[in-house]
Amino acid sequence: MAASVLGRRAALLTDAISVSLKAFSPIICYHGVLLQTAGYHANPSRFNVKEPFIPDKQNERTPEWQKTAKHDRKLFGRYGSSSGIDPSTLWPSRAQLEEIIAEEKQWQPSLEEMLQNIAVKDKELADKRRAREKLIAANMAKMPDMVAKWRMEKREAREKKKEEKAKRDRLLAEAQERFGHTVDPRSSKFQDMLKDMEKEERKKRKLLKRKKREEEQGMFAAAAGDNASASGPATS
C-alpha cells in the first residue's frame, strides 16, 4: 500500500517537472539558433516612449552634452515644435557665422577660384609637356653624333684590348725566351722582368728625347748662322 502511494507521488512529481521544463524550454530553429524562451517577460520601461524625451537642463544630474546647442538642434530636427525648443536659439551667433564663412573660404573655395586653379595646373602641365618634347627633339637631333661617338668608343676599346693582348703575348714570348720556359704572368719572375723592361723603355725614351733636342738645337744653330751670313755688311 505504502509503495503504491509513493509510486503515484513520484509519477506526479515527474509529470510536474516535465511540464515546467517544457514551459521554459527554448525554441530552436533547424539551424540550431536560439529564437526565444517561453515564459520570459521583460520589465516594463519606466520611460514614456510615446512622448519625446526632453532633458532638464536645470537638473544637475543631466549630462553636459545634453545641454549643448548641438543636442538642441538634434532634438528640434527629430521632434520639431514638440521638443519645446525655440528655433531662433538654434542659429549661430555673428562670431560663429564669421568663423564658418572663413572656414568655407579656406576649405571650400569659390567656383571662380577653382577654375583659376585648374587653369594654372593645366598651364603647368602644358609647359612641362612642351619642355619634354623640346628635350626629346634636341636629343633626337644629337642622336647621329651620339651613335657615331659610341661606335668610335667601342672601336677604340676593341683596339685597346687587342693591343693589350698583343703586348701580353709579346711579353710572355720574351719571358719564355729569356728564362727558357713558359712563365706564369702572376709569378714574381715575370713581374721583375716587367720592371726591368719598363726601366729600359724609360731609358730609351730619355735617349730619344735628348737626341731629338740636340738635333733641333743643331738645326736652329745652323739656321741662325745662315741668316747671319746672308745679312752681313755689303762690300763697296
TrEMBL record:
Keywords: Cell cycle, Coiled coil, Mitochondrion, Nucleus, Ribonucleoprotein, Ribosomal protein. Residues 154-236 are annotated as: Disordered. Residues 202-212 have a biased composition (Basic residues). Residues 154-201 have a biased composition (Basic and acidic residues). Acts as a negative regulator of G1 to S cell cycle phase progression by inhibiting cyclin-dependent kinases. Inhibitory effects are additive with GADD45 proteins but also occur in the absence of GADD45 proteins. Acts as a repressor of the orphan nuclear receptor NR4A1 by inhibiting AB domain-mediated transcriptional activity. May be involved in the hormone-mediated regulation of NR4A1 transcriptional activity. May play a role in mitochondrial protein synthesis. One of its GO terms (cellular component) is ribosome. It is found in: Mitochondrion; Nucleus. Pfam families: CR6_interact. Belongs to the mitochondrion-specific ribosomal protein mL64 family. It comes from Coilia grayii (Gray's grenadier anchovy). Gene3D superfamilies: Growth arrest and DNA-damage-inducible proteins-interacting protein 1. PANTHER family: GROWTH ARREST AND DNA DAMAGE-INDUCIBLE PROTEINS-INTERACTING PROTEIN 1 GADD45GIP1 (PTHR31761), LARGE RIBOSOMAL SUBUNIT PROTEIN ML64 (PTHR31761:SF1). This is Large ribosomal subunit protein mL64. Residues 221-236 have a biased composition (Low complexity).
